[in-house]
Amino acid sequence: MAMRFDGKVALVTGGNSGLGLAAAKAFAAEGAEVVISGRDRHKLDAAVAEIGGQAIGIVADVSRVQDITALMREVEGSKGRIDVLFANAGIARFAPIGSVTEAEWDGLMGTNVKGLYFTVQQALPLMRRGSAIVLNASLAASKGVPNASVYSASKAAIRSLGRSLGAELVDRGIRVNVVSPGPIETPIFGTFGVGADDLAAMKRQWAGDNPMKRFGTAEEVARAVLFLASDEASYITGVEVPVDGGVASF
Ligand SMILES: NC(=O)c1ccc[n+]([C@@H]2O[C@H](COP(=O)([O-])OP(=O)(O)OC[C@H]3O[C@@H](n4cnc5c(N)ncnc54)[C@H](OP(=O)(O)O)[C@@H]3O)[C@@H](O)[C@H]2O)c1
After folding, report:
1. CA of 193 to the centre of ligand 1 (A)
2. CATH node for 9-241
3. Relative to the CA of 83, which of 15, 139, 226, 229 has its CA 20 to 30 Å away?
4. Would the pTM count as exceeding 0.85?
5. Average pLDDT in the 198-209 region?
């Protein structure tokens, strides 16, 4: 396969697990110098070993703007620039509206929306004309999911940011697009805060309701991310690409 990212620097937030790790591996396989970030040093070290090549891992909690600033300073010091930003770090939590606390609201919004927003803001000084940003939203941005109101609202905000920032950055030659995965098997399912039986029932239902009758894979999402980040998508900005087996559409 052609090396679409030869000589390019790709920063993947939340690159030590799941969708971020699959994308980081795919970027590296196509020639990119990959930088991944996350909160967990051990997971970062394991992921860097898996990605191989010149990958580096930097600890940064995106819910803290000072961490993001420090992350970008480190990227600037070691790589000098960012050609591709995959703003992917995110968390999920399921709860009915009656039990959602202020702290849970702030936690989800602080990571998924504020964290992503300031990641883009702080990366921009390192991004030149021709660079690309991909934001990770979700099927939940456009489809009602019971007990996922806060998560879904955070993802709808990300979809909106894809449009606004796409419009704002187009004159600078920086494209901004959104990928919206459907259900994809990753470690995030262990973090929803629901019991094992409920989780198993939820996953069975999601697979059964999907037109393709299955979950997607992280590699299937990575392929869309790489397309949007590559020069093949040179006339594409502000769009959302669902990778969801068709479930948002039918
Ligand atoms: N899996 C799905 O079905 C699905 C569907 C739609 C959208 N998504 C979205 O895809 C993204 C990745 O999720 P995933 O499924 O790959 O789950 P995952 O395996 O749990 O990965 C989440 C990643 O985000 C990082 N992260 C979480 N909070 C962070 C913080 N405050 N600062 C920095 N990094 C943080 C985690 O690293 P640390 O733990 O080291 O911080 C980890 O690398 C999320 O935005 C999620 O909403 C997933």
Report:
1. 15
2. 3.40.50.720
3. 139
4. yes
5. 94
